[in-house]
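Support reply, case 0932

Customer input (verbatim):
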Amino acid sequence: MAGRTSLVDRLLGLPAAPARRVLLRRDLRVPMPDGVVLVADLRRPRGAGPLPAVLIRTPYGKERPALRLFGGVLARRGFQVVVQNVRGVPGSGGSFRAFHHEREDGLATLAWLRAQPWCDGRVAMAGASYLGFTAWAVAPYASPPLEALGLAVTASEFASSYYPGGALSLHNTLIWSALMGTQGAGRRPLHNRRVRRAMWHLPVGEADTAAIGRPEPFFQEVTAHAGLDDGFWQDTDHSGAVPETTAPTTMVTGWWDLFLRRQLRDFTALQDAGRDVRITIGPWGHDTKALRAMLVDQVSWLEAHLHGNKVGLSRAPVKLHLQGADRWLDFDRWPPPGTEPTPLYLSQSLSWDVPADVGPVEFTYDPLDPTLTVGGPLLSPGKGGQRDNRRAERRHDVTVLTGAPLERDLDIIGPVSATVYVRTDTGHGDLFLRLCDVGPDGVSRNVTDGILRLDPDDAPDGGVARAKIEMHPTAYRFRRGHRLRVMLAGGAFPRFARNLGTGEHLGKAVAPRSTHYEIHCGAAYPSALHLPVRDG
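Our regenerated output:
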């Protein structure tokens, strides 16, 4: 057994742990104030007295291999780990309503845990993705505060990730809804194929039934409450309380993670509040590479703040991977100093200088033959990240603008945005913009992108709207001799739901209409990307 655990530590890149025997107690019953009982497993060093505890709350079941691995790694290092099934997950009582019960249930669990004779009263929380959200639902409100937080590919607020730029993130939302809707019930044959086919279903509000044979509550809530300002998601948004979190916090995320923008805002809020916080941003997405980095990161952080072992803590607050250069860089803050937003203007090509006035570039979007896209921040393993975009760029319904070969390397590190002057003949539509790196071999690889759902009320009498698009942050080196390329389109399916061009409610609309786009450029309409170019 000792040899196997030593091998696990080596494979994970962890220092060897003492050969402790681990005690496992299953299905501890944790009462909630409303009478519901949640179940949890406890792993701790056998024969130990009261110890600090690491609490992990999950909607995926406490028997997941990754959680058993994490619990064992920590227990061998003198921690005790409590892994709890959240409300409505098999074994725990009540009904699962994604994101809505985690504050109340998490705080009740924390109080119960601190009262146990085997806990010394000190509690940290850790987790990735939804598990990290459950930690955010507790950390700002815990009294006394948590001892530490370990968070990965997660955020204090998820609702803005359902509708980035106002467009439904269809692929990620339906993938996750189908996963949760079939948990514990077994999946039908060809499950993944059914889910992919369901992304084409109209109305979108019935895509869950097309995927798994019945409505899924979370998907129904997302499609019914497209406007983030209607108050429905208010009890799931903990971002306003982030600065109140005093627990020392470590974060891991990746340039291709769907929660990157929101997690960086959480990091910045903590840093601006003077909290003890660090972040690592790697060349990965929402996948196992990020989870391996998280495990190594969290072990060192918990060792420091629960055991007082400060070895390895002397690092910069921001550690990030510069893609295209395969280098790690250290900074004191995010965004890094010395990166200035530099406009890259759109015209018949791309230019660092304001171009002369020219006629608009045009294309037409047809929802029945939507613009397909590849890569980006996707949940599906092996589908996201950086991909060859040439097939999409050859379509008739896109505009592709390419710059001249670079005379020297160009590093962009930080938030990316775009300002585009656009008119549509319907007043409706989505505007998708993607920045790519074109190598000497002609392959066009995506670097960052963003989307905005256009609102007819934002267009002045002339009909040309000033669209401000928030894009995915990045750290990327465009090599000398490479070219920057921008693709503009009326959508990016199936990553985002199709805009049917009518303004009808997304969840119910079934009748599509094509939309013609004019992208205006030049001195009068200075459409441009705003790139965080790093000096030197």
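We compared this against your earlier run and they match. Two observations from our side: Residues 288-307 form the longest helix (20 residues). The domain at 339-534 is CATH 2.60.120.260 (Jelly Rolls). Please reopen the case if you see a mismatch on your end.
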